[in-house]
Design brief:
Layout: H1 26-55, H2 57-80, H3 89-117, H4 123-149
Helix pairs in contact: 1-2, 1-4, 2-3, 3-4
Length: about 160
């Protein structure tokens, strides 16, 4: 009886069909995500700074974060994770809102801590706290988008012919 190392041993045939799609490389995704995140952060901080005197810190944070989160998810869907087409876009936005909720919790908590420590905190101190909270939220957002929202994306169109 032949053994695996004997000349008469059979090796399993390679699987039929094309090789499975390789997941997108994080080394390509991270720089794109960082660029989109930087643009989103600047827009978020600008909206927050404009709204805060009119609405207060927490309302300005909510509005600015919501507006930029929707745009951020759409941009990451297209450029970071290379998903094209409209199929799944609404689901991706809803899942992106989970990441938004986590970011809102972090940034709202940071603002609450700032106001607890200094009830009349300057806008500059508030912006510093928001930047720190958004660093943590950004890391969490990338993980959620990569491993959950766009887990099955392979960079092809999601529209069916």
């Amino acid at each position: 009886m032949p053994t695996d190392s004997s000349p008469g041993a059979r090796t399993p045939a390679p699987p039929a069909g094309p090789p499975p799609a390789r997941p997108a490389r994080v080394t390509r995704q991270l720089p794109v995500f960082a660029i989109i995140g930087s643009i989103s952060t600047v827009a978020y901080l600008g909206l927050y700074a404009a709204l805060q005197p009119l609405t207060g810190a927490q309302a300005a944070n909510l509005i600015a974060l919501l507006v930029t989160a929707v745009a951020n998810t759409a941009a990451n869907r297209r450029f970071t994770f290379q998903v094209r087409g409209s199929e799944g876009a609404a689901r991706h936005q809803l899942q992106g809102l989970v990441a938004f909720a986590a970011g809102l919790a972090l940034s709202s908590g940071a603002l609450a801590l700032v106001h607890l420590a200094s009830p009349h905190a300057s806008q500059l101190l508030q912006l510093g706290a928001l930047i720190a909270a958004n660093v943590a939220a950004t890391a969490l957002r990338f993980v959620l988008l990569r491993l959950w929202v766009f887990k099955h994306s392979n960079g092809t169109s999601t529209d069916r012919p």
